[in-house]
Design goal:
The chain has 458 residues and is α/β, with parallel strands linked by helices. It has three domains: 179 residues, Hypothetical protein af1432 (Orthogonal Bundle), CATH 1.10.3210.10; 96 residues, CBS-domain; 132 residues, no CATH class. Helix content is 55%, strand content 7%. Helix 3 packs across helix 6, helix 3 runs parallel beside helix 8 and helix 15 runs antiparallel to helix 19.
């Protein structure tokens, strides 16, 4: 195996294993999907960059890896392919249909090599979804059919396979008896811990906190500035990133370690449109950008003036925001329990030990004249464990199993504990942060609590 391909395989495997990512329906290691995609691409091409990108195609979208890291380790050719294969829509752009349209326009601009990899990805995903999910399968087939229209420049053999796969999967779905499709089936970020929640508190945490609250001013230099002068300023002010100006506009950036060569113009990294947000964009959108890039740049009237890095997510205001988001999800779980098990019928599904502890606390609160219900005396994990006993809730939340639900609960508890105890959350809790913010924002869009305007093409 070519060294580039082998390094990509090892890197992708470790990146997905680090967050314990699995295939949604079979709980197989996620690398099974990556291997399938790479093998399909290998049947029509021996291009090392394409095969490396096939292994890496989901690393930026799903793991802690950024485009800069892919560029540094595998070169600009592989990075551009991965960028073409990574969705650009944000939760705040609108509902699933709006977001898929944005991503489809992005895919339409991809190079033929990237479109070939995308065809292999669609073939594997379509087969997996339609064989295991007869509720979401029809939705995915419609989306895949629309996406094929912009993939005609990809390899013809894989294009033909994709069309055949759609027909085969449609026949499979026609033979099955679909269950009623609920609105939450159109959410594609896995388990949404509050899929049927009312909008109480959501608007506060999804709209009030914005990029403006955590940005840092971007120190920038003209592209012809002497590198030694730039290095001195970076060291004196401990700047993690600097902007590079051309004709008065910031068009690129550099990290202090990049300060080599003749001048800034030769060394700068161009700022991608996907890295730039306006000041009033939500923190959920900031998190989405930082999932893909090491830096999110903030614009004022179209001009880049500030920057947000992953390290800024440890700021007190973001920690407060995240804790509030978790509280919103907890409120949603409570609402579901009350609707599903009225009159404290949920006590039948909680262990005796946990129920006894809750009753002791309930009695103590009553003794102190603190009005509450027994359900209010449960810990977050207890409430979540009760909620996932409802098979319909598992289906509504797109959870393939109780095992997956329990892992989601465990991850959320870990994030909350680290927030409460002042621990750094960026390094170990980043996947949980990304999923949490995306889910709550999606719930807002689904519930109609916000009215985001359709995003314009990039």
């Amino acid at each position: 195996m070519n060294d580039l391909i082998e390094r990509a395989r090892q890197f992708a495997t470790q990146a997905h294993e680090r967050i314990n990512q699995q295939r949604k329906y079979t709980q197989q290691p996620y690398t099974v999907h990556l291997k399938n995609v790479a093998e399909k691409v290998a049947t029509v091409s021996d291009d090392p960059e394409m095969l490396a990108a096939a292994w890496l195609h989901d690393t930026v979208e799903d793991t802690l890896v950024t485009f800069e890291e892919v560029d540094r380790l595998f070169g600009p050719g592989v990075m551009r392919l991965v960028m073409d294969l990574t969705d650009i829509s944000k939760p705040g752009d609108g509902n699933r249909a709006v977001r898929k349209a944005i991503d489809r326009r992005h895919t339409a601009t991809a190079c033929p090599r990237a479109k070939t990899i995308k065809l292999a990805d669609l073939i594997d995903n379509c087969d997996d979804i339609c064989r295991h999910d007869n509720r979401f399968g029809p939705v995915y087939l419609v989306e895949m059919t629309a996406l094929l229209e912009v993939l005609r420049e990809g390899n013809q053999e894989l294009y033909d396979q994709a069309e055949t796969t759609i027909k085969t999967c449609q026949e499979i779905l026609n033979r099955s008896t679909p269950q009623p499709l609920t609105g939450s089936d159109l959410i594609d970020f896995g388990p949404t811990d509050a899929a049927i929640a009312p909008n109480r508190g959501m608007r506060l945490f999804t709209e009030l906190f914005t990029a403006r609250d955590i940005l840092e001013p971007l120190v920038s230099f003209d592209e012809q500035t002497d590198l030694s002068e730039v290095a001195i300023v970076c060291q004196e002010r401990s700047l993690p990133v600097i902007g590079v100006r051309k004709a008065g506009w910031v068009v690129g950036y550099l990290h202090p370690d990049d300060l080599q060569g003749a001048n800034l113009a030769q060394q700068m990294r161009p700022i991608k449109s996907q890295q730039v947000l306006e000041m009033d964009c939500s923190l959920s959108d900031v998190i989405k950008v930082l999932t893909r890039f090491a830096n999110c740049f903030v614009a004022l009237s179209g001009s880049v003036v500030a920057v947000i890095s992953r390290g800024d997510i440890d700021k007190p205001i973001v920690r407060m925001w995240l804790f509030g988001m978790i509280t919103v999800l907890e409120m949603s779980i409570v609402d579901h329990i009350k609707a599903r098990w009225p009159a404290d019928e949920w006590t039948a599904v909680l262990s005796t030990q946990r129920l006894t502890r809750a009753r002791l606390l309930f009695e103590e609160r009553l003794r102190r004249n603190q009005g509450c219900q027994l359900l209010d005396c449960l810990q977050f994990s207890d409430k979540a464990q009760i909620a996932i006993e409802d098979p319909q809730l598992l289906a509504d939340l797109d959870l393939p199993s109780k095992r997956a639900a329990k892992q989601a609960i465990k991850n959320l508890e870990s994030l909350r504990n680290n927030l409460a105890h002042g621990q750094s959350i960026v390094k170990h809790d980043w996947p949980q942060i990304a999923r949490l913010t995306q889910r709550v924002q999606l719930l807002m869009v689904q519930a109609g609590a916000t009215d985001p305007s359709p995003a314009q093409p990039q």
